[in-house]
Amino acid sequence: MEQKELVPGLAGIPAAESAISYIDGQAGVLEYRGHRIESLAEQSTFEEVAWLLLYGALPTRDELATFKAEVAAMRDLPEVLIDIVRAFPKTAHPMDALQCSLAALGMVSPPVDFRDSVQADGAIRRILGATGMLIATFERSRRGQDYLAPDPSLGTAANFLYMLNGEQPSGPMSRVLDVALILHADHTMNASTFAARVVASTESDPYTVCSAAVGALHGALHGGANERVLEQLEAIGGPEAAATWLDAQLASKSKVMGFGHRVYKTKDPRATALQGLVHDVFAAHGSTPNYDTALALEGEVVARLGSKGIHPNVDFFSGIVYQKLGIATDAFTPVFALARVAGWLAHWREQMQDNKLFRPGQIYVGVHDAVYTPIDER
Ligand code: COA
Question: Between 218 and which of 36, 95, 182, 234 could a Cys-Cys bridge form, CB atoms 3.0 to 4.6 Å apart?
Answer without folding.
Answer: 95
